[in-house]
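Sequence only, no structure available. Ideas?
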Amino acid sequence: MVPGVLLTVALVVTAVTVSVVSPVFPVFVLSLLLLAVAFLIRPRFGRMPKGALLLTRTDAPELYRLLDRVADEVGARRVDVIAIDRFFNASYAAVGLRRRRVVTIGLPLWNALSPEERISVLGHEFGHGVNRDSRHLLVVGTALQTLGRLYALLRRDREWEHRVPGARIPALELERRRRISAITEHRVDSSHPPTRLRIELLRGLPTTEPTISLTAQETDTIEKELGPTYAKIAVDLAAPYRAAHYES
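Reply:
I predicted one. Tokens follow.
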């Protein structure tokens, strides 16, 4: 964090100094460029997911109990905040100056999974914290975010692939993805290695009994705790379609 702050401050001071010492148009343009670079590389501490519903331990004690069990099992720090949003996804992040641990659960994804799959997804997300993936570290994460913003500015034709959990993918589709991954994906230093390698690793592991499981009562209790979020997320999901069909 310190090098990033010092570099940002140095660029700002340099930009202001040269523009004051030599107030001519070329120098003014150079100052603006230095300020733009300083803005791009400034340290980012992260923030709570935009538009997400934040649950406290009072709101969802059983859900927090489940996440605590998963965190303890994989050796991760227990979560500080659970966020619920409308995306078919789940994520882990450390945000703010206090580096609070946040697990974000996309309610559509959660609703589509079995209790066993939900535990697997949570274990996967806490694994990011255990492995200290570079995208979650403050200095390296800031650099990656900067590169991502530059990429977004320079390229606008990206396509996003929405994937469903591997356990629900038909065998033929799983094999298709494995073959595509073998041809197109070659990075092994990413927080999510190539699909081919992940499939091969899973196939090579012995079948074991789960160390964490949910009873029917625990599952029902968690669903009741999430009950109020379902209505709010449903409104968020329906809003674009309502606007398109009824307000145009």
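Confidence is low (pLDDT under 50) at residues 156-167.
Hope that gets you unstuck.
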